[in-house]
Design a protein that fits this description.
Elements (H helix, E strand, L loop, with lengths): L2 H11 L7 H21 L3 H13 L5 E2 L6 E2 L1 H12 L16 H15 L3 H21 L3 H4 L4 H17 L4 H11 L9 H4 L7 H17 L15 H6 L1 H4 L30 H13 L7 E8 L2 H7 L8 H5 L2 H11 L12 H4 L5 H7 L2 E5 L12 E7 L4 E6 L12 H12 L7 H10 L7 H5 L20
Parallel strand pairs: 3-4
Antiparallel strand pairs: 1-2, 3-5, 5-6
Helix pairs in contact: 1-8, 1-9, 2-4, 2-5, 2-6, 2-20, 2-21, 3-4, 4-5, 4-11, 5-6, 5-8, 5-11, 6-8, 8-9, 8-11, 9-11, 17-19
Length: 476
């Protein structure tokens, strides 16, 4: 027992010199990717709504909002930047847990870094600590947390955001423990949106970020919490994930300081639920081998890993909104078939979903040809592996393709060039000329940054360039 204290003590003692070089390389990649998500995410209508609410009702001068440049209290800035970050299903994923650590870690750490006047090296260490804490808690609760209907980012994200804040503010182990203990009372998040839609999922990472930042600020002021918040009889693991997960408490601390779960995190090339990614890759491979048009598809069967995953992304065929489209395997595959492209530019990208008409009769007709089933006795039966497709064509062919690890997974990673390609695809339409490369250069040299304001200001778009907001497609 005492897992919460063990994690808090580790966070309080973490120094960047303790972190292996390959972990730091991955952290820089994730920071760049999440910065791209924040800047592009600010363009979306629902993000603008959250921004308008906070701008009208909040105040503060400590931390900067990406794209807009307003300065708010650290928790409010973290909330907005995290909402932008997770606005369009483009941020990174730790699929084995599963959770989205970067959409909490990067906005929360940056907001507190400004507040605490920390440098780039400390920011990098805080991001690493936040990833590790979030993933370890989510992994300890996996797969029971999400199977019971809890969305990990707003639940485990609070702990990760608190960890980042405590490291940046230089807390000792006891104060760090209290911050994490307070964070547990902010945990929440349900995944009914996978069944009934709604836009609230867009702020799930933001709920984790704001709760964790506030927990750190409360701990700074002397507020305390239960020191067994993770492992206790009424603690997070047992209450949220149940007795079966409670037997996995060792996952919270196994290999702490030597086993880095950040390395298992994937960067998403497509702006859709991550369980869809191996299906998109399988379609790309098939069409590279045998070009197929939507009209040539008589039926398409998706074989996925398990019933809960099928429920998560295979139960919607005719979505009512953009989020429904991003969690609909049939509709997303229909988008890809009709688009005809490959990879990042294959029709399931950041800018594709807001522009799609979810009532397009051609897309709906193709989506109705697609069914999702659980594979029986096949090669992709474990949660952290992929999926398969079988296409029956109108001329009688049957074409089958299995993808074990989708592009972007640790076993099939994006190259540095591909990470930068994705980043530029997100921000080139928005930022002034030359700014994307400035951000790339700054992140690659983040440990040398002494004044964090230099980095933050690169994420702000000058007023003269704020000329448009991404419109949603009109239904026909």
């Amino acid at each position: 027992m005492n897992e919460t204290r063990t994690l808090a003590t580790w966070v309080a003692g973490l120094r960047l010199s303790d972190v292996p070089d390959n972990v730091k390389v991955h952290a820089r990649r994730f920071i760049l990717d999440n910065f791209g998500c924040q800047i592009a995410g600010a363009m979306l209508p629902w993000s603008q709504t959250y921004y308008d609410v906070i701008r009208k009702t909040r105040s503060g001068t400590h931390s900067t909002v990406a794209y807009f440049g307003d300065k708010f209290a650290p928790d409010d800035a973290a909330f907005l930047n995290s909402a932008f970050n997770h606005a369009n299903e483009t941020d990174d994923t730790h699929l084995k847990s599963p959770t989205h650590p970067g959409g909490v870690a990067v906005p929360a750490a940056l907001a507190i870094a400004e507040y605490a006047k920390a440098d780039g090296a400390k920011l990098l260490a805080a991001v690493i600590a936040s990833y590790e804490i979030q993933i370890r808690i989510s992994w300890a609760c996996s797969p029971f947390l999400i199977y019971r209907g809890h969305h990990p980012p707003p639940g485990v994200g609070t702990f990760g955001a608190a960890a980042a804040g405590t490291l940046l503010m230089g807390f000792d182990a006891e104060k760090t423990l209290n911050a994490m203990a307070i964070a547990g009372s902010h945990s929440a998040g349900l995944i009914e949106y996978t069944k009934a839609g709604g836009s609230v999922k867009r702020i799930h990472s933001a709920i984790g970020a704001v709760g964790g930042v506030r927990a750190a600020l409360f701990a700074e002021a002397g507020i305390t919490g239960p020191h067994s918040i993770l492992e206790g009889e009424k603690g997070y693991v047992k209450v949220f994930a149940g007795e079966e997960a409670f037997r996995n408490l060792a996952r919270l601390t196994d290999g702490l300081g030597t086993l880095w779960h950040m390395l298992d995190t994937a960067i998403k090339p497509h702006s859709a639920n991550h369980f869809f990614h191996p299906m998109a890759d399988a379609l790309d491979i098939i069409r590279d081998r045998e070009p197929i048009t939507p009209e040539q598809v008589k039926s398409l069967t998706v074989y996925t890993n398990s019933e809960p995953i099928l429920s998560h992304c295979g139960s919607i065929t005719e979505p009512e909104d953009v989020l429904g489209a991003q969690f609909s395997t049939p509709f997303s595959l229909a988008m890809r078939l009709h688009h005809g492209g490959r990879g990042v530019a294959g029709g399931n990208g950041f800018w594709d979903y807001p522009r799609v008409n979810v009532k397009d009769p051609q897309l709906i007709a193709t989506a109705r040809k697609i069914k999702c089933v659980v594979a029986k006795g096949a090669d992709w039966l474990v949660v952290d592996k992929g999926a398969g497709l079988e296409i029956e064509t109108t001329d009688g062919r049957r074409i089958r393709q299995v993808v074990e690890y989708s592009k972007g997974m640790p076993e099939n990673p994006l190259s540095d060039a591909e990470v930068k390609e994705k980043f530029r695809s997100l921000v080139d339409p928005i930022l002034p000329d030359g700014r994307p490369q400035q951000i790339i250069d700054a992140v690659e040299n983040i440990e040398k940054i002494k004044n964090i304001d230099e980095l933050v200001q690169l994420l702000v778009v000058p007023p003269a360039k704020r000329t448009w907001v991404m419109p949603l497609a009109k239904r026909k």
